[in-house]
Specification:
This protein has 525 residues and is α/β, with parallel strands linked by helices. The protein has 19 helices and 22 strands. The protein binds S-adenosylmethionine and iron/sulfur cluster. The site of iron/sulfur cluster has 10 residues, from α9.
């Protein structure tokens, strides 16, 4: 069948969509980019903020009407966090909805589509995340790893299900369809969409853990993604090897709190820094990244491994959320402003040239002007390359939603959001300007979508290319499209608050040689 899959939310969802795409293709389905042509329309959804959910309601409303009036055989499905959060309720609300599939059930999607094609309506949800935690606590499947209440994957029969989709992954290029949703890694925290339309084969995400047990009071993730569980390290390394053998050169390890990764087995414990070292050793892996890190668990062993391995990129996404101790306490972030500042200082000391990015929430319950100023101060002090700034959105079932009135008025949230954006703009500009004149290694992601929209006319030899440095800076430069997926050196000539512009180095040398020659000719005349 022709399947259209649209992805909202974070990198975890994007990876899920890639894996789902591969499994649907393997089951004989065809992925299409045109929503109108599709026989199956799937939304991989995000529940982190209400805004993301509203987008899905609006899409489902339109699709249900289309189905009722013109396309009775259209199969409609909601996957991921919203499916898990709303479950049967979603199916009741949208009569045309055929599939509701929680994030832990995605491996079953081909089977669910077959059931829907046969006329069934299917709701496949993960076990209740709170109950699942209780059950794990009652009969821990593996010795506790020593840090708070972390769990490794249990190593039993359940383990095969736990990372079934990851293991079945086809390492050939994956190009999921519709990426129109909110993408957290857009500078300024605003949806930007993909930089190039297609992620190049050179890059891949690899999941190292699932779920989260941190229970930040504002956050729905622990309620929809379930308990925190790490994958067996051998399996992660094996997946990375297969990807590199298939041509991948840059791997990003993914976890909601990736640095809390921990695997215990036979009296031995693999910490996140150990895992980083093992993956960094995969032959021919040129770049290794990881997102997202929690400040609480960012221990110095991780910084030392980053400094010691040349293929680990000097980039840390380290969300502070707030610069005020009072707000951090109410958010249950378990660190103080002082500890965050110290961590930033140690990171700068131990990892030369480290680049930092942040997330902030404005208008959290009880946030005062002084708290807000403290966030702005932290932003300035940390010198973030970019920050994702979100207005607080109460999420059903979270501790903040249940116990703290959403007392910062919408217009105040909007103003604080704009003020932090303005501070980040200054900080980002200063940060990016510091690279002018430097030579950067850029992994080329392809022709720039934005340049195409702005009417740039490409030729075979020269188009506007976009890529990323090791520090995750976006770099624009002119060059042939054939450079996509390759590493080139770019001399940085200009900077904005969000990106760099430069010239491919050989070209610059060629240009300088030509100018020198012309000068000499002029002198000779
Ligand atoms: N695990 C990551 C961490 O602890 O930093 C963050 C994961 S969360 C999916 C991505 C970002 O969404 C968070 O860093 C936070 O800034 C934002 N976020 C989460 N819940 C939110 C809420 N209820 N309202 C506004 N922003 C929220
Ligand atoms: Fe959500 Fe906090 Fe877990 Fe991040 S660490 S996913 S913000 S609960």
């Amino acid at each position: 069948m022709k399947v259209y899959l649209e992805t909202m939310g974070c990198q975890m969802n994007r990876l899920d969509s890639e894996l789902v795409t591969a499994s649907l293709r393997a089951a004989g389905h065809e992925m299409v980019d045109d929503h109108g042509q599709a026989e199956v329309v799937l939304y991989n959804t995000c529940s982190v903020r209400r805004h993301a959910e509203e987008k899905v309601y609006s899409r489902l409303g339109g699709d249900s009407r289309r189905k009722a009036h013109h396309r009775p055989r259209l199969i409609l499905g909601v996957l991921g966090c919203m499916a898990q959060r709303e479950g049967q309720e979603l199916a009741r609300r949208f009569g045309g909805l055929d599939i509701v599939c929680g994030p832990g059930q995605l491996a079953r999607l081909p089977e669910l589509i077959a059931a829907a094609a046969a006329g069934g309506r299917v709701v496949a949800l993960d076990p209740d995340p709170i109950e699942a935690r209780r059950a794990e606590r009652a009969s821990p499947a593996i010795a506790d790893s020593g840090i708070s209440d972390l769990k490794s994957g249990d190593g039993g029969a359940d383990e095969a299900d736990f990372d079934a989709l990851d293991l079945a992954r086809d390492p050939s290029p994956l190009t999921p369809t519709g990426q129109a949703g909110e993408v957290f890694d857009s500078p300024k925290g605003r949806p930007l969409g993909p930089l190039t339309g297609v992620r190049v084969n050179a890059q891949a995400y690899v999941r190292v853990m699932k779920g989260c047990d941190n229970f930040c009071t504002y956050c729905i993730v622990p309620l929809v993604r379930g308990p925190e569980r790490s994958r067996r390290p051998e399996r992660i390394v094996q997946e990375c090897r297969r990807l590199v053998d298939a041509g991948v050169t840059e791997i990003t390890l993914l976890g909601q709190t990736v640095n809390r990764y921990r695997w215990s087995d036979g009296g031995k414990t693999v910490r996140f820094s150990d895992l980083l070292a093992c993956v960094a050793d995969v032959p021919h892996l040129r770049r290794l990244r990881f997102i997202t890190s929690h400040p609480l668990d960012f221990t110095d062993d991780i910084l030392h491994i980053m400094a010691g391995r040349s293929n680990i990129c000097e980039y840390i996404h380290l969300p502070p959320q707030s610069g005020s101790d009072a707000v951090l306490g109410r958010m249950n972030r378990k660190y103080t402003r002082g500890r965050y500042d110290e961590l930033v200082d140690r990171a700068r000391q131990i990892v030369p040239g480290v680049v930092l990015a942040g997330d902030f929430i404005v208008g959290f319950p009880g946030e005062t002007e002084a708290d807000h100023e403290a966030s702005a101060g932290l932003m300035r002090r940390s010198g973030f390359k970019n920050s994702f700034i979100f207005k607080y959105s109460p999420r059903p079932g979270t501790a903040a939603e249940r116990n703290m009135p959403d007392d910062v008025p919408e217009e105040v949230k909007r103003r604080r959001n704009n003020e932090l954006l303005a501070v980040q703009q200054q900080v980002g500009l200063a940060h990016h300007r510091s690279y002018i004149g430097a030579s950067a290694e850029v992994l080329v992601e392809g022709p720039s979508v934005r340049a195409a929209k702005q009417g740039f006319e490409p030729t075979a030899e020269r188009t506007q290319l976009v890529g990323r440095t090791r520090g995750d800076h976006i770099v624009h430069f002119l060059g042939p499209q054939s450079l996509t997926g390759q590493y080139v050196r770019v001399r940085i000539t200009e900077a904005t608050s969000l990106a760099l512009r430069g010239e491919k180095e050989e070209e610059k040398e060629e240009k300088e040689e030509k100018e020198e020659k012309e000068e000499k000719e002029e002198e000779a005349v």
